[in-house]
Design a protein that fits this description.
This protein is α+β, with helices and mostly antiparallel strands. The protein is about 35% helix and about 30% strand. It has helices spanning about 5-15, 45-55, and strands at about 20-30, 30-40, 70-79. A three-stranded mixed beta sheet has the order 1-2-3, with helices on one face.
Length: about 80
């Protein structure tokens, strides 16, 4: 999977977990930046918002051959 495919897969996984969210994913070589805006974040702490995003992409971060090694920047906002 190349970097563009990984970004697209992360976006797809986040969209599945947070329908109707505005999502931006960029990055390369295992390090990525994510920004998510969702009404599902309303009333949740920043930590809880981040957990929702990390939970959505966990499959890409698991194991020794993980496609994603780090999220260098994660921004979440409620709408």
């Amino acid at each position: 999977m190349n970097d563009i495919e990984i970004c697209n897969e992360m976006k797809r996984l986040i969209e599945a977990a947070l329908p109707s969210a505005g999502i931006s994913v960029s990055g390369a070589e295992g390090h990525y930046r994510i920004a998510v805006v969702s009404k599902l974040f309303q009333g949740k702490s920043m930590l809880a918002q981040h957990r929702l995003v990390y939970r959505a992409i966990a499959s890409l971060m698991e194991g020794p051959s993980a496609k994603v090694h780090a999220i260098d920047f994660l921004e979440t906002k409620e709408t």
